Amino acid sequence: MKVMTTRSAAAKRRIGELLTRRSDTWERVTPAAKRIVDGVRKGGDRVLRRYASQLDKLPSQSPLQISADELKAAWEATPVEMRRTLETAAKNIRAFAQKQKPKDWDFAPVPGVTTGQRVRPLGAVGCYVPSGRYPLPSTLLMTAIPAQVAGVPRIVAVSPKPALETLAAAHLLGITEFYRLGGAHAIAALAYGTETLAKVDKIVGPGNAYVTAAKKLVSFDCAIDMLAGPTEIVVTSDAGTPAGIASDLVAQAEHDPDALAIFLTTRADLASVVSAEVKQRVKSNATAREAIQRNGLIFVTKSQEEARDLTNALAPEHLTIDSEEDLAWVENAGSVFIGEHSAQPLGDYVSGPNHTLPTGGLARVRGGLSVMDFVKLITVQSYTAKGLAKLGPAGVSLAKAEGLTGHADAIEVRLKALAEGKNA
Q: What is the pTM of this model?
């Protein structure tokens, strides 16, 4: 990994690039993704099957939907140890999601007026589960379980070549609608529906450049969670061990050749040792080695305050810090890992918090996938005569100030009736 002091011109230039970073991989494939999306939208199953055959290598006579029997068979064929692992991960993810779930509430801002919110689930969601470079059964758990906790009645999973473990996870969760579909054509089918696959209200889950481009293309017609870019990790530490820091950097770097791996420290000695440790660890990991060569950076800062400010400016997807006390200065991060024992991959799998996280600095404005992504908050209000008399005149005043006479009249007609004793 390249080691630079933040005082150097090269470091300042590189930091400037990082602060304005955005993944443009999906932009390059947008024209092709648009042709696919438009084709499926207009042609339905006929076009969907053509792309499934061409791109997913699905035999022409194979059904798009995976049967419940096949899901059950996958569970039964999965080794007992892996079944227990899936159950452990699912239990923790579900418990965390249940803690996140918002509640109905009411309160009275003034006597005679009751306001509040009601929480309602979305009607149908589509969970995209990648199966390219690595099979990701964990992504099915992370996307489907919060939807289940939210109460979504219809949960659809799609994956072009789902691994045995992914199918087993679907059986574990009771997912009954699972399709062998991937890429932009799967996103189009979820967003617009076909003869076989009814459309959903929202699409969640990460994918390749074509998936990301397609999600953006359909986002005005079907809600999406976020546009996921390459994985990011920042470790901000003066007290971590070289092996722990380096192993986390390599772990996240192996996701993608474009992954971003950054270590921030005030200690030049620690920076040097971590750099050497990373070099050793990527020798047997080609993807991580490529990512580190492209985007592996160590910045030696002049102070802890500078390291902290830079961390928040980067707004990383994954962040490791030294202690609970450090959490107080963290403002922007997708998911935070505290201390030497908190290996970042534990968060990818079994901790409970979601691993579908904001990238490209999006952590400045949102967190990871959660139950909140699968519910609607409906606000409610109820007035008695007393409440109308109390707040009505203020409403009339604002309406008239805005020149909306119809608004004012809707309130005044009730105030007049109240004054005449008709609705007292």
A: 0.94
